[in-house]
Amino acid sequence: MRTDFTALQGVTCVVFGGGGFIGTHLCRALQRLGARVRGFGRSRTNPEALTGIPWTNGEFADRAAVARVVEGCEVVFHLLGVSTPDSSNKDPLGDLLSSTAPTLQLLEICRASMVRKVLFVSSGGTVYGIPRTIPIPESARTDPISAYGISKLAIEKYLALYHHLHGQDFSVLRVANPFGPYQNPNRRQGLVAALMHRIAHAQPVEIWGDGLIVRDFIYIDDVIEALVMAVMYNGPHHLFNVGSGVGRSVLDVVKDIAQVLGRPDAVRIHKPGRATDVPVNVLDIALIDREFGWFPRTEWIQGLMWTADWMNTA
Amino acid sequence: MRTDFTALQGVTCVVFGGGGFIGTHLCRALQRLGARVRGFGRSRTNPEALTGIPWTNGEFADRAAVARVVEGCEVVFHLLGVSTPDSSNKDPLGDLLSSTAPTLQLLEICRASMVRKVLFVSSGGTVYGIPRTIPIPESARTDPISAYGISKLAIEKYLALYHHLHGQDFSVLRVANPFGPYQNPNRRQGLVAALMHRIAHAQPVEIWGDGLIVRDFIYIDDVIEALVMAVMYNGPHHLFNVGSGVGRSVLDVVKDIAQVLGRPDAVRIHKPGRATDVPVNVLDIALIDREFGWFPRTEWIQGLMWTADWMNTA
Question: How many Cβ pairs closer than 8 A exist between chain A and B?
C-alpha cells in the first residue's frame, strides 16, 4: 500500500460482517498492519483465511453480543448485510428490521463505548437508483429502486445525525461492484465471481436482460486500501464513492472473463431483466482522489487474472 | 376552494392520523366534498369536530386493524406520527419502529387491497436539514438533523420504490409549519398554537435560542386544499413542497400574535437553543403552483385572527 499505515499499529478494531467477501480481506489487511482486529458475524465464508483473528459468531440484532464485541474498540467497521437488492424487494420490512434497526442499536452502543470512528460500507451501486449523469458524483440524487438501497441510504443519514448530535466521527464508502478472491460465486451478488465460476466449469452463463447494463467493477485490494485510509482521514468530508470510474457492460465482462480463462466459446443464455437492475452505474471518484490521494491501482484484466488464480487454487 | 372537487363525491378514503391537527381538518374537508371518509389513529384531539365520520381507535403497528380499515378504500392518507424531532433524537430506534416499520406494513396492505393512491404528509421543516439555498426547492439535498426527518425521508423513498416496482400511485407533500384551529398548544410541535395560548393567558413566552430562527408558516386551509388537489393530480411529479414561501423569525411571530391578541406587552424568556432546530427553513413552492395551480391564499395576519377566534370560542 502506498500510504504509511503505521498509525494503525495496536489500534483495536472490530469488523461487523468480517466473515464475508470484503470483511475477510479487511480483517487480514488490518492484522497485517498491526491493528488488533476482531470479527463479528453470522459465519465466515473462508475461516482458514482468518486464522489468528478473534471471531464471534452472532446475530446483529443481539444487543448484548454486539456490545461485548464493541467494548474497548477504537474503530468500528460496519459491513453487515444479509439481504440483496432482489431479496429486499420481496420483503422491505424484513430488510429494514434486519439491517437499519440493528444498525441504530450499534450506533447507540458505539456512542456509549466512546468509539472514535465508525466506518460504513454503503452501496454505490444501489443508493443512487437510476442515474441522471454518468459518472455519478456523491452529490447526485439518491432514489434507490431497492429496499436494500433505501436501508443503506437511511444508515448513512443516521451516521450523519449521530455526528451532528453527538460528534461521533464516521466515514461512509459507497463501494461500486467489488470483485476478487474469496467472493462467493453462489450468492446473488458478485457478478464476476458468478460468471467466472460458471465459465470455468463450462456451464452456460445466464445474462439478465440484454447484457448491455453497465457496472463499475473495482478490485478488492483497492477497496480495502480506501477503507483503511478512511480510518486516518481527518478532512471535512464523510461520504466517498469507491469505484473504478470505468463502466463495463455485462457482455464485455463475460467476454473478458472468457478470454482470461481461455474459454472464448462460453455459452450465453439470456434471461428476462430484473426490476432492481439500474441500466447503468459508474461512480465519479474525483472526491476520494482529491481527499485521500486514492485511486484504483489494479488494472481490470490483472484483477481478473488474480481472481482466476485464486479460484484455481481454492 | 377554487378547484372543482366533485370528482371526490362517493370516493372512499381513510385518513391515518385523522384525529390530529391536520387530520381533523382533512376528514372534515373530505366529508364536506362528499367523499366517504373514515379515520384511524390512537385518539382524536377534537372528537366533536369529527361527528359523523366513522372512527377506529387503533395502533398503527396492528396489522389486522390497519388492513380492516384500508379494505375497500380507493385513497389512503398517511398523516400518522407519534414522535417529534426532539423526542425522536432521544430514541431513533423507537422512532424507526413506530413510524417507518408500520408504514411498510401499510404499503403492503395498500398493494394487496388495490388502493388507487397513497398520499403522505412529509415534513418540509425537517427532511432538508440545514439548507444551502433559500427558498428550498424539492431537489435540494436532504440531510435531516433529526431521526424524525430521516423516517419521513425513508418513507418517501419507500413510496417511490412501490411506485417503481408495483405501479402504486402516490403523492408526497412536504408541508412547512402549519397553523390554525384545532392545533393543540400543549404538544412540542405547533409554534403558533403554543405561543398564542401562552400570550392569551398572560404567561411568559419561552423562546429557544435567540429567536432569530426563521420558519415558513402555512395556514391549515391551504394545506388541506393542496392535499385534496393531490388526490386528483395525474402529472409526472410525486413530491411537492407545501408552504407559504415566506420566512418569519420567531421574534416576529411573537410580535404579530401579541398584536392580534391585543397584548403587545407579552413577556419573552430566552432559553438555550435546541440541536434539532435548523436556523432557517423556507420552502420554494414554484412546483406545486405550476403543477396544481396551488398557492397559499390565506394572508398571515388573517390566519392568526381566525386561529385566535377559534381559541376564544373553544
Answer: 76
Mutate to test the interface with A, among B97, B150, B159 (most CBs of A within 10 A): B150
* Predicted-assembly ipTM surpassing the 0.85 threshold: yes
Closest by CA to A180, choosing from A296, A62, A34, A59, is A296
Query: What domains sit in chain A, N to C, each tagged with a CATH number?
Result: 10-179+218-243 (3.40.50.720)
Considering only the beta carbons, identify the residue of B89, B150, B165 that sits closest to A157.
B150
Please enumerate in sequence order all residues whose Cβ is within 8 A of that of A198, keeping only pairs 6 or more positions apart, or say none.
A185, A204, A205, A206, A266
Report chain A residues whose CB lies below 8 A from the CB of B97: 101
What order of strands is seen across the sheet that includes strand A75-78? A55-57, A36-41, A12-16, A75-78, A117-123, A169-175, A239-242
Give the nearest chain B residue to A127 (CA atoms). Answer: B157
Interface residue B164 vs chain A (CB under 8 A):
yes
Q: Is the pTM of this model over 0.90?
A: yes
Kindly give the confidence (pLDDT) of every residue in chain A, 314 residues in length, as a single tens digit, with 9 standing for 90 and above.
456 778 899 999 999 999 999 999 999 999 999 999 999 999 999 999 999 999 999 999 999 999 999 999 999 999 998 889 999 999 999 999 999 999 999 999 999 999 999 999 999 999 999 999 999 999 999 999 999 999 999 999 999 999 999 999 999 999 999 999 999 888 767 899 999 999 999 999 988 888 899 999 999 999 999 999 999 999 999 999 999 999 999 999 999 999 999 998 888 898 888 777 889 999 999 999 999 999 999 999 999 999 999 998 87
CA distance A245 to chain B (A): 23
